[in-house]
Amino acid sequence: MSTTEKPSKETLENWRNDPNNWKYGIFYYNKADNRIFPPKRNIYMGWTINFAKPSSIIAFVVLLLIIFGITFICSNQ
């Protein structure tokens, strides 16, 4: 599959269900998956981070900094 081709729903589902894409059963790691926040194994539990993609890790760190920044600003008022 080329990098510009969008994977099918079946492929996305197979990636999510493949135990080889889950490190220690909780960390999603799939270089072929370009999604920043793929769904967790149990879809109803929300999303996780694709630790194989640096952009996912950067997005997660930025999100954490925003949350901590807002918390810090609100606690100092």
Features of this protein?
single chain; 77 residues; mainly alpha
Quick description:
40% of the residues lie in helices and 5% in strands.
Task: Explain how this protein is built.
The structure is a single chain. The chain is mostly helical. It has one domain (9-75). The protein has 2 helices and 2 strands. Strand 1 and strand 2 (27-28) form a beta hairpin. The mean pLDDT is 91.
Number of helical regions: 2
Number of domains: 1
Q: Strand-and-helix sequence, N→C?
A: HEEH
**Averaged pLDDT:** 91
List the helices and strands and how they pair.
Layout lengths: L8 H9 L4 E2 L3 E2 L25 H22 L2
Antiparallel strand pairs: 1-2
